[in-house]
Amino acid sequence: xxxxxxxxxxxxxxxxxxxxxxxxxxxxxxxxxxxxxxxxxxxxxxxxxxxxxxxxxxxxxxxxxxxxxxxxxxxxxxxxxxxxxxxxxxxxxxxxxxxxxxxxxxxxxxxxxxxxxxxxxxxxxxxxxxxxxxxxxxxxxxxxxxxxxxxxxxxxxxxxxxxxxxxxxxxxxxxxxxxxxxxxxxxxxxxxxxxxxxxxxxxxxxxxxxxxxxxxxxxxxxxxxxxxxxxxxxxxxxxxxxxxxxxxxxxxxxxxxx
Length: 258
Known about the structure:
This protein has helices at 6-23, 30-33, 49-52, 63-83, 122-130, 163-186, 213-220, 237-242, and strands at 54-60, 100-105, 112-116, 135-137, 143-146, 148-153, 156-161, 194-198, 202-208. With 258 residues, it is of the alpha+beta class. The termini are far apart. The model has no long low-confidence stretch (mean pLDDT 80).
């Protein structure tokens, strides 16, 4: 019969007791765990979807809407550029206006077209429109060419987004969407939600313990609104909080990163 030294028996017993002590909170209700002394472990294992259920959602970023919005901005800037309007902070005299007509976007919003009245103005028009492009941030942080493709077709100028620009914009839209989704889910108190990118334009959201996926979709799908408020610094914060209901002012909490 195999015999173990006494110290080995003691080691096995101590390790077993510690394991039970650390695992015990998972079998106790929250009110009992709240009464635990501070030196004892009281945290439980966060169960995933396979053990406690929850919501599994798959979102897809509307890339076409992102592209269309960028080209709408270009179409608006196009008018000022051809009319010779100086940008904010731009020095020098106002440029000579270039006559044009028929400015608009294609039915799918992927191309902006404008007709230059005089062909002699075409080189200058192409130059001005090309300057409306913005640099592309590559995946490695390297800035590539501008995001616009500008073509001359007869009397028309066609403007579209380059493939590199579309890829960068799609990547940026997914990253920003993940951050927005994470902030909104954190407001629900969901423990350890899983928010991951899937492919080029999809986001997988797993929220353990959230049994109402429609509620979660409604929360995530809310449209953000930007409002401007006048700051009343004549009243101390403590007084404003104590006398909030009798005032016409509103109290807003500042959400700032530490």
